[in-house]
């Protein structure tokens, strides 16, 4: 299948994937029960209610394994982050909504993806140009800086994101890093200048808030599990092994 053969989609998911990773080199090619991580994530996203699912990368080997599995690849140049890579890949697509699902989430819930897309497209999504998700967070995880917390108003509009425990007294919600963008907004987001809040927290969505972008946050049941470290990879490998009734392998 080639990009040219795709129908003109309305909702397209783009999975950004890069080769370099500081904490876990070559993680996109790491084996998960017989297939590379990026292929597992792509297959998972295929199960959501979308018109097309593409992988965006600047790496030859990532592109080769995705194409070998039957996937569609959009080649990009180097990118500052996943949002910039997705925006470049979406530039020539006739899509109304572009969904960004990170390539290191092979267990992402398809229900989560569907809810976030509906959150942008349903009647309550009028006035919003981007939607994302949040799930309940246990108190034991509230002070974990790897868990990004989000606070919303009564209309489901994001008020703040932080690696700190906000609100101080709880209850806490963890941000689920799947985004649905209106295509025009996505093109505008990637040229916005950085802000002090974004730099301090290392969270690009704070740049959007600082520039007045309305972000809708919908409730989802599970935050999912991204693979950032060798320990994460071992955990996900064990989950895949249990799913097929076998013992987790080594390697």
Key terms for this structure?
251 residues, alpha/beta, seven-stranded mixed sheet, two-stranded antiparallel sheet, 8 helices, 29% helix
Would you write up a description of this structure?
- The protein has 251 residues and is an alpha/beta fold.
- The chain has 8 helices and 11 strands.
- The chain has helices at residues 37-46, 60-68, 82-90, 110-121, 183-189, 196-201, 204-210, 230-243, and strands at residues 11-17, 31-32, 35-36, 52-57, 72-75, 97-100, 130-137, 149-152, 158-162, 172-182, 215-219.
- The strands form 3 sheets. The chain has a 7-stranded mixed β-sheet, sandwiched between helices. A two-stranded antiparallel ribbon has the order 2-3. The chain has a two-stranded antiparallel ribbon with strand order 8-9.
- The protein is globular.
- Mean pLDDT is 90; it is low at 247-251.
Number of helices: 8
Distance between the termini: 32 Å
SS-derived structural category: alpha/beta
Q: Radius of gyration over alpha carbons?
A: 18 Å
The low-pLDDT segments are 247-251
Strand order of the largest sheet: 5-4-1-6-10-7-11
**Mind summarizing the main beta sheet?**
7 strands, mixed
Topology:
Blueprint: E1 11-17, E2 31-32, E3 35-36, H1 37-46, E4 52-57, H2 60-68, E5 72-75, H3 82-90, E6 97-100, H4 110-121, E7 130-137, E8 149-152, E9 158-162, E10 172-182, H5 183-189, H6 196-201, H7 204-210, E11 215-219, H8 230-243
Parallel strand pairs: 1-4, 1-6, 4-5, 7-11
Antiparallel strand pairs: 2-3, 6-10, 7-10, 8-9
